[in-house]
Design a protein that fits this description.
Elements (H helix, E strand, L loop, with lengths): L3 H9 L3 H14 L18 H7 L32 E6 L3 H15 L3 E6 L10 H12 L4 E3 L2 H9 L7 H6 L9 H9 L7 E2 L2 E3 L1 E6 H6 L11 H8 L26 H10 L17 H15 L11 E2 L2 E2 L1 H7 L9 E5 H8 L7 E4 L10 E2 L3 E2 L2 E3 L7 H11 L2 H9 L4 E2 L21 E2 L12 H19 L5 H21 L1
Parallel strand pairs: 1-2, 11-15
Antiparallel strand pairs: 3-13, 4-13, 5-12, 5-14, 6-9, 6-10, 7-8
Helix pairs in contact: 1-4, 11-12, 17-18
């Protein structure tokens, strides 16, 4: 039986093309950006309700959508006849309205005879992790199609044998993976043991933005593609630091450095340089080497010398940073920072604003040891089929459709993420947007482990590092002493956790 929203959509289809024509100009100018789920500096340190946002059921719809009626443009112009696919598939999603807005209308328009039912995640029971609850949902509700919101959760599900290998479908239908962003396919294969268990229509990344006007004013050369963190911070040091705070120009400032301790920057640099907190088996902490020592010095000496804006106290309301605080944190927009590192959303927003200065863009930082590698890359929502799905063939047709060129064109118009489909790149009209596509390789990051640490370990992990770094900042110990203490305390914490 079709859901109520499907019946409503079928009555609405004749009006879709008319509304598309009426809104074309609005779509071309109303670019509001995509969500970036990379704000948390340690995405694997989640629990409870936070995990519910971070893993498989988190939504990927944009907060602001130029289609005020939530109506997508039609695909009839791109497909001569709608598919005759019929039957019923069950998909997992937290909210019917969100599913309808994101892809439901497009799917129903393309497959009018296909009925879709929604299963929702159960509320975790007492002493039950969200992942345990999710696995129980997969077993009890047995959906045919799921969306996975992180590469880490995708990897976990592949390793647990809970996803269907899609290679046979890809080969059978001669799906041209060469049309899809190589970084996306590589990330999926790397976490899929060489095979593909899902496909992602969009991706997330960051790039280095810079204020051309400030660089020209101080006669400092522009940043270039594939710079290391050392090179970026050397550029930042060329801006004067002696001015009073109200007149101060910071060479580099990342927005969320304003609400975090130096650990936030330490982790960004370590991630780019290919470092790990621990070994693959989660039995040995690995933060005592010379590479980590270099990262600690690079970040902490920057704070101690006044190179970076010191973190401010940010007051939260309902666990959200208030808009006036966000504005104060965004030194780049206010012309007080020469460089920043941020997402596609941020860049597009800045490209459409009258900032009073020219914005340049280059690739994100990379490691000289592993050039052309983007550690800030992540796939967006990954569409996958559970291993025990009752109707995998129909689910595959839906996956193939939402990852098609036709849908990529529509979602690009709707600004629903940075597409992985390379055929529509010409539709992205922003100067320098190719910086998000230039780096071809991705690598397992600081947070990506074959074996995840246990909850008791992750609960205290942050606190230990924050405590030791705070002692450095207050002059109570040296960087070397802090590094040795971090290694010792974290290893003790891990041993205790693994023994339980």
């Amino acid at each position: 039986m079709n859901m109520e929203w499907e019946n409503e959509l079928k009555q609405d289809i004749p009006n879709l093309e008319k509304r598309m024509a009426a809104n074309t100009q609005q779509v071309q100018t109303a670019i509001q950006g995509l969500k970036n789920n990379k704000r948390n500096s340690r995405p694997w340190l989640f629990s409870g309700a936070a995990v519910a946002v971070a893993i498989a059921f988190s939504v990927f719809a944009m907060q602001t959508n130029p289609w005020s009626s939530d109506t997508p443009p039609t695909t009839q112009a791109l497909y001569q006849t709608p598919s005759e696919l019929n039957g019923t598939i069950k998909t997992s999603y937290t909210d019917q309205g969100e599913f309808r807005r994101d892809y439901g209308k497009l799917i129903n328009q393309q497959f009018p005879k296909l009925s879709i039912t929604l299963s929702t995640p159960r509320t975790p029971a007492l002493k039950e992790s969200y992942r345990e609850s999710y696995d129980i949902m997969l077993k009890e509700q047995n959906p045919d199609l799921i969306t996975i919101s992180s590469d880490y959760e995708y990897k976990r599900l592949v390793s647990a044998g809970k996803l269907l290998n899609l290679d046979k479908y890809i080969n059978r239908d001669h799906l041209n993976l060469g049309e899809i962003l190589p970084s996306s396919i590589q990330a999926l294969k790397d976490r899929g043991k060489g095979s593909i268990y899902g496909l992602a229509p969009t991706f997330n990344s960051r790039s280095l933005l810079y204020n051309k006007t400030l660089f020209d004013q101080y006669h400092i050369p522009y940043p270039t593609d594939q710079m290391s963190w050392d090179e970026i911070l050397d550029l930042a040091k060329q801006f004067p630091t002696a001015n009073k705070e109200k007149d101060r120009i910071y060479g580099f400032h990342e927005m969320y450095m304003s609400s975090n301790s130096p650990v936030y920057l330490i982790n960004m640099i370590a991630n780019t340089n290919g470092l790990k907190f621990m070994n693959a088996e989660a039995t040995q902490v690995t933060m005592d080497g010379k590479e980590w020592n270099h990262v600690f010095h690079l970040a902490l000496e920057g704070y101690q010398s006044g190179l970076f804006h010191k973190p401010a106290t940010i007051i939260l309301k309902d666990n959200q940073i208030m808009p006036h605080n966000l504005k104060a944190m965004d030194l780049f927009t206010s012309g007080k920072a020469a460089m920043t590192l941020d997402s596609t959303e941020y860049y597009i927003r800045k490209s459409t604003q009258a900032l009073g200065f020219k914005v340049g863009i280059v690739t994100p930082p990379t490691s000289k040891e592993v050039p052309n590698t983007n550690t800030f890359f992540s796939n967006g929502q990954i569409f996958a089929i559970p291993a025990k799905a009752a109707n995998p063939d129909a689910a595959w047709e839906v996956i193939k459709y939402v990852n098609s060129e036709a849908v990529a064109k529509i979602k690009t118009q709707m600004n629903s993420g940075l597409t992985t489909h390379l055929s529509v790149l010409h539709s992205l009209k922003y100067e320098g947007i190719d910086a998000f596509y230039k780096m071809k390789n991705v690598t397992s990051s600081l947070y990506d482990f074959p074996v995840l640490p246990k909850n008791d370990f992750t609960r205290y992990f942050d606190a230990i590092i924050e405590d030791e770094i705070a002692k450095v900042m207050s002059g109570k110990q040296t960087i070397e002493e802090a590094q040795a203490n971090i290694q010792k305390r974290e290893q003790s914490n891990m041993n205790k956790s693994n023994a339980e």
